[in-house]
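Entry 14. Ran structure prediction on the chain below.
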Amino acid sequence: MSKKPLKVLLAQPRGFCAGVVRAVDIVERALEKFGKPVYVRHEIVHNKHVVETLKNKGAIFVEEVDEIPEGAVTIFSAHGVSQKVEGDAVGRSLEVIDATCPLVSKVHKEAQRYSRNGFEIVLIGHRGHPEVEGTMGQVPGTVHLVSKKEDVAKLETTDSGKLAFVTQTTLSVNDTKDIIAALRARFPKIVGPDVKDICYATQNRQSVVREMVQHADVILVIGADYSSNSNRLREIGQESGVPSYLLPDASALDPAWLENAATVGITAGASAPEELVQGLIQRLGDYFEVDVQNLETVKENIHFKLPRELLATA
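Output, structure tokens:
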């Protein structure tokens, strides 16, 4: 029996961003240079497949530095850490390699600069996200967390004329615009970073999905269910009226989702490896005659340097 045809629109760009590539490289290079094991505080990126692969190579993942033997080689995840965690690592004489995404480090520096100049900080982000916890813990002064525009009305500040905002990097311009508008309406003197400081990868991956909803009957997003940027890609599809599903890998695919679909869009969150995308396309081929076409909105050519401790092995 012949298979039903299915057009697959493959998002370009998709998957690993430069910060994730750098973080994974750091763990692999550290294993090469120092041997097994190396310890990683928190998941290096939000993807179980990536973590399992690195575990198999000799990385040991922990939640806190007090689980790490004194003096051991230790890597901080791409999400960044608080100053307390940095201090705890020094207290245990850990040999630290910092895999914090340079764009996250940039937010830390901006928030610290505002704080040194006497500003209270408003951080736009999701409570409990490791990047948010790290950023809040990098600022010595007051930090107010807002997750939605309704939170702005509840803000209690010491001096409304000395306020600055920064954002979690995995939020896009579209995610933050309503909150920023509410902040500017309530606090006309508030200052903040330029739009160009928003994470390029978050913005680019969301832009492709916004284009994709014009053409696809269903959207499939490869990514972890606890990945902020992956969830947002699925939400954008849903908000546009296109049935959209978040899958950790091809095994989660339900062919019934595609029963009435002629065109399916596929993308992947910034922590999802390309092999999972290809695995999904292969799985679709079990049910359909697949025709894959790239949907490209922007070219990405961003690369971040490795830390100096590992440059000799690069």
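The chain has three domains: 4-16+200-296, 18-100, 103-197. Will compare against last week's run tomorrow.
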